């Protein structure tokens, strides 16, 4: 009987601390995070709720450039792509939205939704010439955001305008990458998987002519066989472990490194490990990164 008042007093004390933290004129994020951790330890928040609240605070400090898909890994519709070309890209990537490039591929002129072109194809009974003649009618205006756009403001803009994708531009107005509302939400709640995400059974999946999606748990032996490389498997069993070692830290989404003339981009990761990698020839890089001599690792 004596324990209940003590428990209630502890909970009231914690709630008072939280109220003081949010009502204070100068808000200290570190203090709020500490209070949230205490709430979890006092069983007022479960692990999932704690993770979401921590993620929600984190997005106010991150920018579009921190989570964007870099330009070299964007799946785009070229100016002269045929209906067949477009359909191949839709099927291979499983994406629902695609940037449309200008004639010289220097900028993004629109966004094409997979559902729109499928509806157009149905309306014209899959007649390729008629589809091509009417394609511009379904291309939507792109939304551009600067690299330094904060994620909390970007999420608000996505909600207010009902857009799901934005093209990220650098300080010179050039296309740096793209970001989606799902990318922002994943920073808050963690990876969002759907039925189109690659499964562990398919460790290496080709996306386009030179780009592959590779599960971090892929055995190094299998990776070497597929890419004709000679990465050492003496210290690490998986490509994710090998790449993490090369980085020298647990990398975040979007970080890149060149190993054995291949460009590795972290597509997804959590607090403990890399989950998915994008692998392409290092020649896709507009500016060379520091390369790694893999012979020194094994």
From TrEMBL:
Keywords: CBS domain, Cobalt, Magnesium, Repeat, Transport. InterPro entries: CBS_dom, CBS_dom_sf, CorC_N, FAD-bd_PCMH-like_sf, FAD-bd_PCMH_sub2, Ion_transp-like_CBS, Transptr-assoc_dom. Residues 68-129, 138-195 form the CBS domain. Plays a role in the transport of magnesium and cobalt ions. Belongs to the UPF0053 family. This is Magnesium and cobalt efflux protein CorC.
């Amino acid at each position: 009987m004596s324990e209940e008042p003590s428990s209630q007093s502890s909970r009231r004390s914690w709630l008072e601390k939280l109220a003081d933290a949010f009502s204070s004129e100068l808000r200290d994020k570190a203090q709020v995070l500490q209070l949230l951790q205490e709430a979890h330890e006092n069983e007022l928040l479960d692990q999932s709720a704690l993770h979401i609240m921590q993620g929600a605070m984190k997005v106010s400090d991150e920018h579009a450039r921190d989570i964007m898909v870099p330009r070299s890994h964007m799946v785009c519709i070229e100016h002269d792509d045929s209906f067949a070309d477009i359909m191949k890209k839709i099927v291979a990537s499983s994406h629902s939205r695609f940037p449309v490039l200008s004639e010289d591929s220097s900028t993004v002129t629109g966004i094409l939704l997979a559902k729109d072109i499928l509806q157009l194809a149905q309306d014209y009974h899959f007649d390729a010439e008629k589809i091509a003649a009417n394609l511009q009618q379904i291309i939507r205006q792109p939304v551009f955001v600067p690299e330094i756009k904060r994620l909390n403001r970007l999420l608000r803009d996505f909600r207010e305008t009902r857009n799901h994708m934005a093209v990220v531009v650098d300080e010179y107005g050039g296309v740096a990458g793209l970001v989606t509302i799902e990318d922002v939400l994943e920073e808050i709640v963690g990876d969002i998987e759907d039925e189109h995400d690659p499964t562990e059974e398919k460790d290496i999946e080709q996306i386009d002519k030179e780009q592959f999606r590779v599960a971090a748990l892929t055995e190094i032996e299998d990776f070497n066989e597929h890419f004709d490389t000679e990465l050492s498997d003496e210290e690490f069993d998986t490509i994710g472990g090998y790449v993490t070692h090369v980085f020298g830290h647990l990398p975040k989404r979007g970080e890149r490194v060149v190993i054995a003339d291949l460009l590795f981009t972290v597509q997804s990761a959590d607090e403990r490990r890399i989950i998915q990698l994008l692998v392409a020839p290092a020649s896709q890089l507009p500016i060379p990164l520091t390369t790694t001599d893999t012979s020194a690792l094994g």
